[in-house]
Amino acid sequence: MQVTICHNPGRGASRRVLGMLRARRIEPDIAEYLRTPPGTEAPADLIRRMGTAPRDLLRRKEAACAALGLDRPEATDEAVIAAMAAHPVRIERPVVVGPAGVRQCRPEERVWEALPG
To answer: What CATH number does residue 86 fall under?
Structure first.
């Protein structure tokens, strides 16, 4: 089964989701998006596949989010995606891509929604 986790090993939620997968004997491909920034296309594709708005994948706790006005209603989807591409720390993680879809794993149990029954 092909599974990918957009992972930040420095964050507890990301480590827990990776552990949940491994506990079920699933060894995902690990995309450490801070080491290898995804560019603009990857976040846009994840957002499209999740069927959500770009702001839903934005890490709002980042100070730069408010400083750049990304939390304002007038911020365009393109501006939010560009900000995530320029500084991937702004992506709310973890995100898991699995056979049943793409899920932002907040709460962490959402990981199972990306996997088949």
So the answer is: 3.40.30.10
pLDDT digits (tens, 9 = 90+) for 65-89: 888 888 888 999 999 999 988 888 8
Average pLDDT (33-57) is 90
Assign 3-class secondary structure to the chain.
CCCEEECCCCCHHHHHHHHHHHHCCCCCEEECCCCCCCCCHHHHHHHHHHCCCHHHHECCCCHHHHHCCCCCCCCCHHHHHHHHHHCHHHECCCEEEECCEEEECCCHHHHHHHCCC
Cα distances from 62 to residues 13, 17, 49, 87, 105, in angstroms, run 16, 21, 24, 11, 18
- Whose CA is closest to 59, among 79, 18, 88, 85? 88
Q: How many domains does the chain have?
A: 1
Rounded to whole angstroms, how far apart are CA atoms 54 and 76? Answer: 9
CB within 8 Å of 87: residues ≥ 6 apart: 64
